[in-house]
């Protein structure tokens, strides 16, 4: 079984968000970048399934410039076998999906996994685009993934419950909790990751279909109105008469 | 040219988030000088579909193929693409839900359309440009995005527009046969399992949410959260560590790696307000925080706060709600 896991490089979850003075770009200064938390579920589950199915391989794929390589190495340290970096700034979801589909076609992977969405641009859309570009099923978002031969059984989250879906390979799934417990790299993994292959390939032609013209921060909160715990019931009156939400 | 609205239905009724989407679609159609047609997916009654007139929808297309009752990605995509073609829809509007995201992303490739998810306002369409405002960075920012494709797909964030109810107006319900083959149902669910929702209210659709964190000390104390939620007709939620240790089920976990909610009222009880938690709740209209630590970061994001012990405060709040009647 050949697994392809797509990872994106995102600001650490504790990052205070700020933009360049013209508000056109995210200000990367002083920001630490991590593997997108949702992608860690995809990566770890692929590695677990590889360990359970002898002869399987896990390839990590990132569409990004050279500065994403520390996180690609981290994915290798967690247990992926090799990596591909498509050397391009990820312009929008279409552009990224086209790059992933091109790599997937070339390597004929059986299972393509990625996170449900990236925590920076929150698109929640690359999975479906890749599935459609390749003409294969997508299961999004998946909370559980088991493989038996070339059949996968997945739990897909629906509002208020879940669907049990079975699909044959090849397919795409976008992953979310509680699929597995994301792993952190150990010392041996970090050492071996240095020697694992990381191939850099050029982007294929692909035109973005969206363009961000401006970023903005949400309006500042006016400040909290404190209610004395002894008269906690007064809060309910305020919620009805002042905030008018109950 | 028209605006096509995808409405999701469940147990015969149009979902609340789809009433919002229908309103959005009708307003957008008026802005563009055209009309809004809806295509319904899921289990719908003709009467509930006709009521979409109240949101400003003129016509609803509905395929009664029984296998479309549950979500099937391929079949839904094909059905919606066929209705878009028939109606010559240049804009398709759907909910930013699990169905909307799954179908919208496939449709964008099939129809060669631009796609924007998590959209919070009507687009700006002056000067021939089509610009939407969407949430980004897990609710910590917004971005203006120009959709450059000739066709556009917009996924509207829940609770970002209030559904309109113009009493008495009805939509025409028209049968639509998408000519689906067995192969289109290859990814049909084998089974659908509905989880118990506290008070029967779906968390992602809820207008009021009462949420508990590690400060609740254990699952045996959750009745305090549930009592207040029940009195308010609210859904219940929790922080990540609470679901990680199985005090509460995973489908109640809100935050960066959980569900994103944007209710009118979010009451956080014994939750510190870590940035990853805030990411899932900070677009709530009003936030109430109850925490015994006055330095808890959540107070900075709150509109109302009580510095106090949840075990003392929660019963008082429940009693006060009951007094209101
Ligand atoms: C990559 C990543 C993703 C994450 N995603 C999420 C996510 O999606 N959602 C999420 O919630 N977290 C997430 N987290 C975890 C997050 O960082 C915090 O650890 C978590 O939100 C803390 O939960 P808590 O506030 O319930 O617990 P704690 O941090 O333990 O806080 C408990 C609070 O309860 C108060 N308290 C205690 N006793 C009482 C009492 N009797 N009365 C009143 N108050 C009391 C305390 O003062 C404290 O503020 C994520 C972390 C990482 C690294």
Task: Write out key terms for the chains shown.
heterodimer, A: 246 residues, alpha/beta, two-stranded antiparallel sheet, B: 325 residues, 7-stranded parallel beta sheet, 5-stranded parallel beta sheet, 9 helices, 28% helix, binds flavin-adenine dinucleotide
Most extensive protein-chain contact, per-chain counts: A-B, 77 and 97 residues
Q: Strands of the largest sheet of chain B, in order across it?
A: 5-8-4-1-2-3-9
Characterize the main sheet of chain B.
7 strands, parallel
Largest sheet of chain A: 9 strands, mixed
**Which molecules other than protein and nucleic acid are bound?**
flavin-adenine dinucleotide
Strand order of the largest sheet of chain A: 9-8-7-10-6-1-4-5-11
Overall 3D shape of chain B: globular
The number of helical elements of chain A comes to 6
Task: Give the low-confidence spans of chain B.
Answer: none
Radius of gyration of chain A: 21 Å
Strand content of chain A: 25-35%
Q: How far apart are the termini of chain B? A: 50 Å
Query: Please, how many helices of chain B?
Result: 9
**Fraction in helix of chain B:** 25-40%
Helix content of chain A: 25-40%
What does this molecule look like?
The complex is a heterodimer of chains A (246) and B (325). Chain A has 246 residues and is α/β, with parallel strands linked by helices. Chain A is built from 6 helices and 13 strands. Helix content of chain A is 27%, strand content 31%. Chain A has a 9-stranded mixed β-sheet, sandwiched between helices. In chain A, strands 2-3 form a two-stranded antiparallel sheet. Chain B contains 9 helices and 15 strands. In chain B, strands 5-8-4-1-2-3-9 form a 7-stranded parallel β-sheet, sandwiched between helices. In chain B, helix 5 runs parallel beside helix 9. Chain B is globular and about 60 Å long. The chains are: A alpha/beta (246), B alpha/beta (325). The interface between A and B is large, with 77 and 97 residues. The structure holds flavin-adenine dinucleotide.
């Amino acid at each position: 079984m050949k697994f392809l896991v797509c990872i994106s490089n995102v600001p650490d979850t504790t990052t205070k968000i700020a933009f360049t003075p013209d508000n056109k770009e995210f200000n990367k200064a002083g920001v630490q970048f991590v593997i997108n938390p949702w992608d860690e579920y995809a990566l770890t589950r692929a590695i677990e399934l590889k360990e359970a199915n002898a002869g399987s391989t896990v390839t990590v794929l990132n569409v990004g410039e050279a500065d994403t390589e520390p996180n690609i190495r981290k994915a290798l340290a967690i247990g992926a076998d090799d990596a591909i970096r498509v050397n391009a700034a990820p312009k929008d979801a279409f552009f990224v999906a086209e790059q992933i589909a091109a790599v997937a076609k070339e390597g004929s992977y059986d299972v393509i996994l990625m996170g449900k969405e990236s925590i920076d641009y929150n698109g929640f859309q690359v999975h479906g685009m890749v599935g459609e570009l390749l003409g294969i099923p997508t299961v999004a978002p998946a909370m559980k993934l088991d493989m038996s031969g070339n059949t996968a059984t997945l739990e897909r989250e629906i509002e208020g419950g879940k669907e049990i879906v079975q699909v044959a390979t090849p397919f795409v799934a976008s992953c979310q909790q509680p699929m597995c417990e994301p792993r952190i790299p150990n010392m041996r993994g970090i050492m071996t990751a240095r020697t694992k292959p990381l191939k850099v390939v050029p982007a294929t032609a692909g035109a973005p279909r969206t363009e961000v013209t401006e970023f903005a921060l949400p309006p500042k909160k006016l400040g909290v109105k404190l209610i004395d715990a002894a008269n906690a019931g007064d809060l309910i009156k305020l919620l009805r008469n002042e905030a008018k939400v109950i | 040219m028209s605006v096509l609205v995808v409405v999701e239905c469940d147990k015969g009724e149009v979902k609340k988030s789809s009433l919002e989407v229908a309103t959005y679609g009708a307003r957008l159609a008026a802005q563009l000088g055209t009309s809004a047609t809806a295509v319904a997916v899921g289990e719908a009654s003709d009467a509930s579909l006709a009521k979409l007139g109240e949101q400003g929808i003129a016509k609803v297309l509905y395929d009664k193929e029984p296998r479309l009752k549950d979500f099937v990605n391929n079949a839904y995509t094909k059905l919606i693409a066929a209705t878009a073609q028939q109606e010559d829809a240049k804009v398709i509007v759907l909910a930013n839900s699990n169905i909307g995201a799954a179908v919208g992303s496939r449709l964008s490739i099939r129809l060669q359309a631009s796609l924007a998810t998590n959209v919070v306002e009507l687009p700006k369409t002056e000067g021939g440009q089509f610009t939407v405002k969407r949430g980004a960075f897990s609710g910590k920012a917004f971005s203006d995005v120009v959709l450059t494709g000739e066709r556009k797909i917009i996924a509207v964030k829940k609770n970002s527009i209030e559904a309109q109810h113009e009493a008495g107006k009805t939509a025409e319900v028209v049968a639509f046969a998408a000519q689906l083959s067995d192969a289109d149902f290859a990814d049909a669910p084998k089974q659908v399992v509905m989880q118990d929702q506290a008070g029967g209210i779906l968390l992602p659709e809820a207008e009021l949410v009462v949420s508990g964190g590690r400060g609740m000390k254990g699952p045996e104390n959750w009745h305090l959260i549930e009592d207040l939620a029940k009195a308010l007709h609210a859904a219940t939620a929790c922080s990540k560590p609470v679901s990680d240790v199985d005090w509460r089920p995973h489908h109640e976990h809100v935050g960066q790696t959980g569900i994103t909610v944007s209710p009118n009222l979010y009451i956080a009880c014994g939750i510190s307000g870590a940035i990853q938690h805030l990411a899932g709740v900070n677009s709530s209209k009003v936030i109430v925080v109850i925490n015994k630590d006055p330095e808890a970061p959540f107070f900075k994001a709150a509109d109302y706060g009580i510095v106090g012990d949840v075990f003392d405060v929660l019963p008082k709040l429940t009693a006060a709600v009951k007094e209101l009647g």
